[in-house]
Amino acid sequence: MATLLIAMDAVDVGMTEAAVGAGVSTVLLLSALHLARTEEAPGKVFQPLAAVLSMVTGATLIYGTSDLPLYGDPAGQVHHHVAPYYIEQTPKEMGMPNVVTAVLASYRGYDTLGETTVIFTGGLGVMMLLRGRKRNHHNPKKSECRQTDKSGNTL
Prior knowledge:
- This protein is mostly helical.
- Helices cover 60% and strands 0% of the residues.
- The protein has helices spanning 2-7, 11-35, 48-65, 83-93, 99-107, 109-132.
């Protein structure tokens, strides 16, 4: 995905995707594996409700994409809103050739700051949840533990 975004001249978004995809996702996956149980919980082999829900969701997504314009279509509706203004005015107003960076950093600066804050807060919350939970290793029961004094006598 990062390579695709870079090929589309959205270098900053591509680098963010690479950092999130390779960095944060890996840390979260490894943390979840560390906290997971070593034995799988018994469950049903086939769950009809889950299968029906998956099929309905897939059909809805396919139906939703059937009305989208073709990729790169210059007559698409997205190209007739604010995109022409950004393409024409960005070099004059911002002095930078990369329109995506100018839009994210200047025109939508507060929005980008808000998105960054949400992502940071979400990551902080996940880290706090993962830190607070510890893996349950074999802990002997209290009745099995023996306490001894300095001389080695059992208490």
